[in-house]
Description:
209 residues, mainly alpha, Substrate Binding Domain Of Dnak, Chain:A, Domain 2, 2 domains, 2 strands, 62% helix, elongated
Amino acid sequence: MKRNIKSLFLKARYLNEEYKETKELFDKHYIEFFKELDIFIKENNIEGITVKLPDENKESAAVQVFEDKPPDDETVKDAEDIPVEPKNAESEELKKLYRKIAIITHPDKHPKHISEDKRREMIDIYNKSTEAMSNGDVFSILDAASKLYIDLPEVGGNELDSIRDKCLAFENDIKTMKNTYIWAWSLSNEQGKQNCLISFLNNNLGNKL
Length: 209
């Protein structure tokens, strides 16, 4: 792997780790924020508002703040229901790399002595790399290969553009999470937390508080 490609891959890997750390904190604060919001509404006898608390057992559970009554349509389409348009990798090297990953990680290829934890790890890598191949996600395929200590091949311009796009996606997702009332609330003192709750309610209710 050439130096400029390696640098881009390492940048994407760093941003991926930053994204995962940020999302873990965001999800934690997400639950706490709406619990505090519910308490704030009840303590201040704010009428006509219902907070639908998230299910802590579900990742990224939906939370809604309703004024007076919920909207008629509360249907949220799960990500699993959204069809993904398959994208075949243009690089033969990338296809060969995926085959190497599959040979190691496919459940039928696991040696008998492998531990259950390692088996689950291999299956996870296999599933993610297969999904990445379908979606044309070059970074995730390279990342899977790197975790298996497979030598990474040279990739072409389209693949490089895919990794750059992945970097931008990570950066945008991190920025989006940090540019929320939830993130500001998590970093604030007690007075700042209360101000965040008030600002959030005013923003959702049209400055009625």
